[in-house]
Known about the structure:
The protein has eight helices and three strands; from the N terminus they run αβββααααααα. It is mainly alpha-helical.
Amino acid sequence: MGRLVAVLLGMAAVLASAAPAYGDIYREVAADGSVTFTNVYRKERKSVLLRREPRPAVPTPTPKPRPVAGAARPYAALVAAAAAEHGLPEALLHAVIRAESNYDPHAVSPKGAAGLMQLMPDTARELGVADVWDPAGNIRGGARYLKRLLEMFDQDLSLAVAAYNAGPGAVIGSGSAIPPSAETQRYVPKVLEYYRRLQTGG
């Protein structure tokens, strides 16, 4: 009898050491006295639990913070104020500023456009922007101009953005379509892609 107990205990130890993760070990004794070890509990066979495998704690995933529109972007407060004043999405103004100057208030184009939203001198004067180097005035003027272009082209964002880059005359002269110039053809999808990404927090 002592030998049988030793054999059974030895088998139990081997099974326990070889058991897969989360595996419980049960002993079943048949009517003929034969012993079976298994990891499946069966009530009808009067399974006896020999070893319970501890279940590891499942780590709770850390929720990702939801992006906040305009948060942590340069000139966010000025953009928010100009967007509210002219009924424009903040993300759209940010997209234009990024494409035009990459947030450099001292940027100047070869054609003379200046500031964050790259206003041409004549356009700036028409919009009442006294100092194109002042970020607040430049953003307000650019927002006012973009709003005007959206109204001119029946809220067609692609045409308004094209007109911001090439001028409304170029858009009208192209049959109310994006002008074929390589610069404008690159500019429009770039702004729209920035706009889409900013809307989704990208």
